[in-house]
Write a structure and sequence with these properties.
103 residues; mainly alpha
Length: 103
Amino acid sequence: MKKLEGQRWSMQHANRLPPAHWLVELLELLADAPDRITEAVASDFYGGVELIGAAFKAVMLAVASNLLGDDAEQLRARTSYNRPNLFARFELARKSLRPDGET
């Protein structure tokens, strides 16, 4: 019963994607940081960027999984415009945070 309640809650809230928005906003906030970090902490900083990126991808994967159900058709329609925008913002933010010379 708890699993069904959790799925219903996920379905109702998947269109909002707040964790994904927060993670993208965090990457966007970090865009000014590379100019201020020292070489001694650069690997920690970029490792953190990769962790944030992995968390974003995990959230988006979970949302996509929640939207696979037969009863999620309306929710899929409501979220379809939001997901590509989030991925585009994510990629732009990640590219701005790559160390010089990395692609």
